[in-house]
Amino acid sequence: MKKNKKIHLKRIMAVYMTGVTLFMMAACSGNEDSILNLANPKKDNEQIVNMFSPMEKTDPNAENMARSATDKTIRMAEEKLGVTVDYVTYTAENYQDKTYDEVTLDRVRNNMDDFYLLNPDTIRLLGEEGKLMDLSNLECVKNLRDVVKTANTIDGKLVAIPQEVVAYGLFINKDMFDQYQLELPETPEEFLECCRVFKENGIETPIGANRWWLENFVLAQAYADL
Predict the structure, then answer these.
(1) Would residue 216 be called left, alpha or beta, if left means φ above 0 and alpha means ψ between -120 and 50 degrees?
(2) Left if phi > 0, otherwise alpha if psi is -120 to 50, otherwise beta: which for 115?
(3) What is the pLDDT of residue 134?
(4) In 3D, which of 174, 148, 167 has the Cα closest to residue 213?
(5) Is 118 exposed, middle or buried (0-12, 13-18, 19+ CB in 10 A)?
(6) How many angstroms separate the CA atoms of 205 and 185, rounded?
């Protein structure tokens, strides 16, 4: 049982570490003391914060969970801090052949916005250039897991906070393995053998996965040793 748990944990961590497309939020500023003063006055009684992000909802009525979560977070921040957040969004139509990463690099380097949704590679590059603010002293940092803080720390500075963290795992019906005297598979051959036994006993679909989950599982297997 202890061995089974170890295998299970190893696979979960392998998938977690190979998560590639995770958007991060980072603040851009050359002055660390201005971390609480990102808003610029637009009117006497109004403060505006500019945030650059990808265009995730082209149809106003389209359902998009990631954008909805962002919108809800922004609304709470506006109410709590008394500011207004202006979205500046990326569209391929506006920037033509430039990728989102290319556009964000240019905008951050030229201090065009207050907040950015950035990809991990872009965060690493801008952090090494000293273009991102040190967020280590923010109150919310205490809620981050150590693995998250480590992944976003460059030259001793926490330069980004994830919008979301996703970990994938493989769930099994251990009772079925026990019923047919099967050990948890550790190789593709053992995995296929378990599937054969299940199918011989009338279980037509021994494993199920959606496309996105399966891609991450394959990546995790390929890079597990790393």
Answers:
(1) alpha
(2) beta
(3) 96
(4) 167
(5) buried
(6) 17
Q: Which two tokens stand for residue 57?
A: 């909802």
* Whether the Cβ atoms of residue 134 and residue 155 lie closer than 8 Å to each other: no
Q: How far apart are CA 58 and CA 39, in angstroms?
A: 27
Tens digit of each residue's pLDDT (9 = 90 or more) over 11-59 = 433 333 333 333 334 433 344 444 444 444 445 567 888 888 886 544 5
Contacting residues for 169 by C-beta, under 8 A, at least 6 apart: 8, 11, 12, 15
Nearest-10 crossing angle of helices 2-17, 211-223? 100
Q: 185: phi > 0 → left, psi -120 to 50 → alpha, else beta; which? A: beta
> Residue 8 is which amino acid?
H
Distance CA 77, CA 182 (A): 52
